[in-house]
Amino acid sequence: MWLKPEEILLKNAFKLWVTEKDNEYFVLQRRRGYGEGGGGLTGLLVGTLDTVLDSTSKVAPYRILHHTPDSQVYWSIACGVTKEEIVQHWDWLQQNIMRTLSVFDSSEDVTSFVQGKIRGLIAEEGKTCLVQEDDPEKFREAHLRFEKWFELPPGEKLVTYYSCSYWKGKVPCQGWLYLSTNFLCFYSYLLGAEVKLVISWDELWRLEKTSNVILTESIHVLAHGEDHYFSMLMHLNETFVIMEQLADYSIKRLFDKESFQREPLKKPRLEANAKSEQFRTFFRLPKEENLLEVHESFLWVPFSHFNTLGKICLSENYLCFASQDGSQCHVIIPMREVVNVEKPDSSSRALTVCVRGKRALRFSEVRDYQRLANTIRSRCGINASPQHSASSEVMCCDCFICAILLLFKLHPLKEKMKEQSWNIHFSEYGRGTSMFFTRKTRDLIVRGVPEALRGELWMLFSGAVNDMATHPGYYTELVEQSLGTSTLATDEIERDLHRSLPEHPAFQSDTGISALRRVLTAYAYRNPKIGYCQAMNILTSVLLLYAKEEEAFWLLVAVCERMLPDYFNRRIIGALVDQAVFEDLIRENLPQLVEHMTDLSFFSSVSLSWFLTLFISVLPIESAVNVVDCFFYDGIKAILQLGLAVLDYNMEALISCHDDAEAVTILNKFFDSVTNKDSPLPPTVQQASVGNNDKASHISVDISELIREAYEKYGNIRSEEVESSRKRNKLYVIQTLEDTTKQNVVSKLRVTSTGACSDTVMLPSLFIYFQRQHFLSCYWTMNSPALLHHDPSLAYLEQYQLGFQQFSMLFSLLEPWAFCSIKSTLSLWVFRLIDENQDGLINFKEFCCALDTLYTGSFTNKLKFLFKLHLLSIKLSGRGKVDLQAYLKQWQNEILKKEESIKDLPRINQTQFIQFSKTLYNIFHGDPEEELLYRAVAHVTSLLLRMEEVGRRLQEPSSPPESKKPANSTVGEESSTEESSTTPESSDTSSSHNSQDLSETEWSFSFEQVLASLLNEPAIVSFFERPVDIQTKLGLAKVAQLKSKTNK
């Protein structure tokens, strides 16, 4: 079958493959161990390795590679199980491709053409094979095996499964890889040896494709500090994409609880999401757009006078085209701009799309051209509308922009030359939303954009022009709605308004400050999840210099929500991810610097402002805008390239420096020396933006030359590679943040606690189990209290919370005496006792305090905990006239006290005491000294009843006089005179002969009485003071945590 062209390394492959046929452009190879000749010892080993594996996962024994005579790079384009199959592919290449390749002048054109043709063949095969691939009956059987082997809750849905090899140590285990919504699972059973692996997606630290001498390609997973490798996957790329999607979806939930979805994740949906995400990223389209159709075709390029091979990509509101022949040409056509689709030409299978401005685009060799034409017509009929003119909707911005432009005394000659170059470009490639993007466009960007066109081009390159056109009046409404609001975001905005480019004349008056306030406030109102973050004010200030106010707003939307995702939040995850990408690029491109500075975290800390402000905060404003030009055209790739160029330019100085402070000084001086010789800004503005730093020590560097050098040296960095590196590093960055936060939480609790909560081993493990239980409660229950009441503004210690059901399951696994089952009433009493703020949720601190008492508390504290639990039974039984709110408030205050007086505890009545005795019996059940402990409890109960009887008899003679003095009655006697309580049958028969009077009256005990009585029983005291094996408890809980959800 045909394969998506992928570059391979033949250095190690020659050991595993034998060449059967070759010509100038293609090589047919056979894997050693197959066919004639076996291949000796190497062939025997390779053949054995492949034969013992399942037939659906082993490497295909034949393949075809593409190469060019003047290149050492090989591309895999086809594979086959039989020789007949691969020969058919070889013959097709000889008959259909070889003759065509002779017309190309360069090797790059040959490779681009071959790759485009192979991708087209794959697309056609995919249309016929897609339906046959999914077998419902086989999937149902696989789901049953998945449920049987892994015993996960019924709500856990299988997404897909693959046959593969799992490398456990140095020995591969052939089995099945199951990918579900929340877990990665593997199962193997060979020769009596069972291998079972279950990893939660949100526990992954690394997910990447790797290769080595033994394994041509495998998937590497890092979780819990352990490396896992999965190989021999027939559809490795497909498997990896789905794993990447599932991991990304799960990792988002660590910091965004709103990302939990009600709809189950399915394989087709995940594949479609991955393709749509790539589509939106490449063409800078709104997040609502989804890739619906893809057609291979040729597009007539008028400025080059030839047809370029590429793909038509169709979404709900856009028709896009991207070339695949190396010309780097693409075009975006909003459906609202299409005025007509001419009648298709059947001879060349072509259709012509007419857009506004008397322009037409001709697509030819479209296989399903008739249906595509009808689809475009139908969508244009729905979406066609007059193009929105933003200028009429802007508040107080035209005069503002005019005022700014008047401040610039432009250099006529330089500006006119730039404008003339761009006008020529517009005449050839078009202007506006349907303009062709080519290599020449990038060349003009690198040389600099004229001031008058900067706002227009920023809007076009970022895709903000489409956002504004499809949302007429939206910004005006936001400004009106947010006017006068007072939030944390608006307070921070007011604080930073006068810190935004204070040296620039545009922001030394109320005009500029007011516009900046409106844009930032409107965005904070639009997106409260981001609200306002530092660095947004600096970026928006620059946007307002060259764009109208509404345009600046939509540019800010494009930057925050599409081009720099997750940058502007409290944890700046996006910036940290790109810094990790930057470190990888440094290792790859600047090995000399890596050898000298092995710890690259320095560059992460120093470059944070580069990424957050697009170099605006470190470069003079007249130079920084050139960087912003490149950013809007090439995205984060432009910032990474420039960062590498800056380090390369200062390589010698950085290598010779002795510490980090000296390196920072070198970079700061370099940035101060960067100038823009073509800048139209007045000298006063340029001097102000540079500041008072001494520039004499550094030779001036022109920003255009620096950017040009960045593109020449590092322009080969592909956007696809950057996005792939982003996904790979995102897992590691988020897990590192989670780990750091966990350490902070643990340290905080360790400082303020003693006993179990101060244990350096137990507390981190306990946090992991608590966190996992939180997510388990969210996985299969969309109405989970933890989700419904999630408040991101809470301190991180309170971010992970458990409702009663989740708490009772986890507590039943970790409690030391097994006295509290999942569905018992006692578990509810424990939950209510430790829920300090009565919000129906338990946070990690509250949970730890309870376990701290039960694990390592003194005998008195453990008994006090049990005593308080049974006081809470009043609420559930409904008996008595006790002021429950007063009691709850008192108990909460007691929990917060460092030293608690046992005299302040309320008395326990007869019903509660009977339940207290039963709880003690349950705790002692199964203990080796069970009988002795039972007798001790019976003896204490009998003793307390006799004490109460004696006390009453002593009070009988003096009770009538005291009844005449109600003012002197004590609070301690109040709970013993409740008339509404009934007397239950006593379980203690040893005191029945002297409790006749007690059965007719209400009785109660104080905590002091209970404590004193139990202290006289050495068996009970030793039981409660017996140390608990915490590590064993935690180990058992780890195994049983998922099963407890299953058995619920």
From TrEMBL:
Keywords: Calcium, Cytoplasm, GTPase activation, Metal-binding, Repeat. The keyword Acyltransferase does not apply. GO terms for biological process: glomerular filtration. Gene3D superfamilies: EF-hand, Pleckstrin-homology domain (PH domain)/Phosphotyrosine-binding domain (PTB), putative rabgap domain of human tbc1 domain family member 14 like domains, Ypt/Rab-GAP domain of gyp1p, domain 1, Ypt/Rab-GAP domain of gyp1p, domain 3. It comes from the Eukaryota. InterPro entries: EF-hand-dom_pair, EF_Hand_1_Ca_BS, EF_hand_dom, GRAM, PH-like_dom_sf, Rab-GAP-TBC_dom, Rab-GAP_TBC_sf. Transmembrane segments: none annotated. One of its GO terms (molecular function) is GTPase activator activity. Its main location: cytoplasm. Residues 969-992 have a biased composition (Low complexity). Pfam families: GRAM, RabGAP-TBC. One of its GO terms (cellular component) is cytosol. Residues 952-998 are annotated as: Disordered. Residues 830-857 form the EF-hand domain. Residues 448-635 form the Rab-GAP TBC domain. It is found in: Cytoplasm, Cytosol. This is TBC1 domain family member 8B. It comes from Oreochromis niloticus. The lineage of its organism: Eukaryota, Metazoa, Chordata, Craniata, Vertebrata.
